[in-house]
């Protein structure tokens, strides 16, 4: 049954318009989200919840309640290999080819790997299974009361707030896609293709990188902050933390961008699973910071390898396969920027930022990363990730009639 559900691959947009309008030399064609695409996405979320609950049992009753030696063998010899192999098994089993669907599959190994490391290094004690069941089964971080640390109960108001937010991002992304699709998501010509490895301060290159970064941020807003959040609220009865918080238009420093605004789901797990253990072991904040960004780069190399993985049903000649190493370079660059902020000093940075308008500080922060932004987003353009996501959106196709 699942194989039948996943027969369509959604590598190209095969939707028929739900309506057209002709005015003068223009024809506007309106396309609704593909319901089968949405059903496939929801099915993957359901599979993720089931697998996550199974993993939480192993963590709680295996790793946390065994000796150090047994826990080490279970963690690094059995559990982590299973978690990291799971996406490839699913891609081969169901012949999943769409990059957005594969990214949804990756939500489990990315979070569960780091949470398993956190459990192994810091929580060698008996712990309630209900806690790990929520952390592994629902992926997102549960929202806790600031005083009691109890889970915050989902309400009709919180669900409606997520629904309203979903509508806003759904509209913004739909408009953005309608404008960018005719340009294949590269509105400005650049001296070199965006998927190549290089450093550039060319204005059109920076502008394209900014557009792609904004799209990626809005996708997290739509897909995780509101979409997945709302579904998980209904399934669990509790609220969850937002994953992004206006990183492209509100960040006041590199640490603010990476630590409090951009993908807080992964940054929080990296902090618990990598930063804290390394800092405790070395006693150095700088070593822990750099180690965290190196691990983040390796994790994203794993992500990229899976996004463009050629499963057993595919022909390699038809697939885009990026070179290894670009994510390590990208996150290494941003790790150096964060160390630069530390060396300059928090007080000095805040004093300089205080003399600028907040918007100017945000522009400065974003410009520090944009010259290498294509190392992260260039493959998403060249490999079809942005294009394949259009099937989940309502878009308008504009055709010019002669």
Structural commentary:
The protein has 402 residues and is mostly helical. The protein has one domain. Helix content is 65%, strand content 4%. It has 16 helices and three strands. The chain has helices spanning 2-5, 35-63, 68-94, 99-122, 129-137, 156-180, 203-236, 247-250, 254-261, 264-282, 285-307, 326-344, 346-354, 358-369, 374-382, 385-389, and strands at residues 19-23, 26-31, 395-400. Strands 1-2-3 form a three-stranded antiparallel beta sheet. A hairpin with a 2-residue loop joins strand 1 and strand 2. It is globular, with a radius of gyration of 22 Å. The N and C termini lie far apart (47 Å). The chain crosses the membrane at residues 37-60, 72-91, 169-186, 287-307, 327-344, 356-376. It is a multi-pass membrane protein. GO terms for molecular function: O-acyltransferase activity.
The number of helical runs is 16
Structural class: mainly alpha
Widest sheet: strand ordering: 1-2-3
SSE pattern: HEEHHHHHHHHHHHHHHHE
Kindly provide the radius of gyration, computed on alpha-carbon positions and rounded to a whole number of angstroms: 22 Å
Tell me the helix content: 55-70%
Regions with pLDDT < 50 over 5+ consecutive residues? none
Number of domains: 1
Give the CA-based shape: globular
User: What number is the mean pLDDT?
Assistant: 87
Distance between the termini: 47 Å
* Major beta sheet summary: 3 strands, antiparallel
State which percent range the strand residues make up.
under 5%
The total strand number stands at 3
């Amino acid at each position: 049954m699942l194989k039948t559900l996943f027969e369509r691959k959604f590598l190209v947009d095969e939707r028929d318009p739900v309506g057209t309008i002709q005015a003068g030399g223009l024809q506007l064609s309106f396309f609704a989200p593909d319901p089968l695409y949405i059903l496939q996405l929801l099915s993957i979320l359901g599979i993720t919840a089931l697998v996550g609950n199974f993993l939480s049992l192993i963590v709680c009753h295996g790793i946390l309640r065994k000796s150090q030696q047994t826990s080490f063998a279970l963690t690094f010899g059995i559990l982590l290999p299973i978690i990291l192999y799971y996406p490839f098994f699913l891609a081969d089993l169901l012949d999943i080819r769409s990059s957005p669907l594969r990214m949804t599959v990756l939500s489990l190994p990315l979070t569960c790997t780091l949470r398993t490391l956190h459990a192994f290094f810091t929580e060698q004690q008996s712990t309630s299974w209900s806690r790990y069941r929520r952390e592994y089964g629902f992926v997102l971080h549960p929202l806790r009361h600031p005083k009691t640390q109890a889970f915050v109960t989902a309400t009709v108001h919180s669900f409606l707030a997520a629904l309203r937010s979903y509508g806003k991002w759904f509209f913004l992304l739909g408009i953005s896609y309608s404008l960018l699709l005719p340009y294949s998501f590269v509105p400005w010509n650049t001296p070199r293709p965006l998927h190549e490895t290089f450093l550039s301060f060319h204005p059109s290159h920076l502008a394209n990188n900014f557009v792609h970064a904004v799209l990626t941020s809005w996708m997290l807003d739509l897909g995780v902050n509101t979409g997945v959040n709302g579904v998980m609220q209904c399934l669990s009865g509790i609220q969850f933390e937002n994953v992004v918080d206006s990183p492209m238009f509100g960040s006041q420093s590199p640490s603010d961008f990476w630590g409090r605004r951009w993908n807080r789901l992964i940054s929080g797990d990296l902090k618990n699973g990598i930063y804290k253990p390394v800092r405790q072991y070395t006693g150095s904040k700088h070593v822990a910071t750099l180690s965290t960004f190196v691990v983040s780069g390796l994790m994203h190399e794993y992500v990229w390898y899976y996004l463009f993985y050629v499963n057993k049903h595919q022909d390699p000649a038809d697939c885009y396969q990026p070179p290894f190493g670009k994510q390590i370079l990208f996150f290494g660059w941003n790790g150096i920027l964060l160390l630069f902020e530390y060396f300059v000093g928090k007080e000095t940075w805040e004093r300089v930022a205080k003399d600028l308008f907040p918007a100017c500080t945000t522009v400065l922060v974003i410009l520090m990363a944009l010259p290498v932004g294509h190392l992260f987003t260039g493959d998403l353009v060249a490999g079809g990730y942005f294009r394949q996501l259009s099937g989940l959106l309502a878009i308008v196709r504009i055709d010019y009639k002669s």
